User: Fold this.
Amino acid sequence: MRAMVYRGPYKIRVEEKPMPALEHPNDAIVRVTLAAICGSDLHLYHGMMPDTRIGHTFGHEFIGVVEQIGSSVQNLQVGDRVMVPFNIFCGSCWFCARGLFSNCHNVNPNATAVGGIYGYSHTTGGYDGGQAEFVRVPFADVGPVRIPDWMHDEDAVLLTDAAATGYFGAQLGEIVEGDTVTVLGAGPVGLIAAQSAWLMGAGRVIVVDHLQERLEKARTMAYAETLNYDEYDDVVVELKKRTDYLGADVVIEAVGAEADGNLTQQITGPKLKLQGGSATALNWAIDGVRKGGTVSVVGAYGPIPNAVKFGDALNKGLTLRMNQTPVKRQWPRMFEHVRNGYLTPRDMITHRFPLEQIPEAYHVFSSKLDGCIKPLVVPGAG
Assistant:
């Protein structure tokens, strides 16, 4: 089969790989019909994630058709169209029993932290991902669900991570009616976080970024106020000015380990790898939220220390909430919100690339060329 293959930082190829095989009676093999490139895939692409091995296939956002099932699979049949959450989880361990599917204890040798994730290095189990023609799906009776007949495929693929993560970010904020919510980052996760904040009762939503196409999307898709941090000497001071010098009630950090905006963080993080990325957005969140407020972190960080203002968080009495998204737990409500038009994931898709052009897709997305906000990958396209 044809698949995206990692060959080192900034080096990916499309190559022939062996077809995935059933390795356990509860496995399925899924023919991928649509995948996406996630902002967190760029952390792998840029060499930010430890133990990303040569030959690994990325991709944790994908949908497809079931081609084979193991002997114990009961909930799926060959030919089913399915959407697959980015979490790999057993459904029965202590954590899964409590809905913490992203922290499953049975799917990752490094499970003292995160559970299993498709296509996200050996720190998350070493599973090949869905930027390929076929993918092995473990615990097929637990993770995948059939795509509802009414759901658009492009909404379905975004619900496997980006949209679910944005919604989860707003959930973690514990927004109450009338709250002022600041969202750091107007990428796909931040855009859905902003839409979701309104659903959860926000009285005001402010989105911070510096790319004009993303800020425009935040205004038209999420009806949010916007702030371009390039236009201010100190973005935190500007946020305080806009909130009666108190700060927002809730800040959602939807950027992660490669945030721009602070030269020292950029040099010590993404450039020199002296810390696990740039914690600029996380520190803005801590500084920009009011005392006693809540910071929700859904931007991706690797398992390496970062220079974070934890003392400020302590002294401000902040609540910090974070996790990888337990995707399937979000789906029942999210399906209804998408069906009713309250959440519009596919509105943020800007580019579609054939699988064979995935090196170009990564380059365009990484370099923020051509107004790229969310690219999809189409196996089998010309």
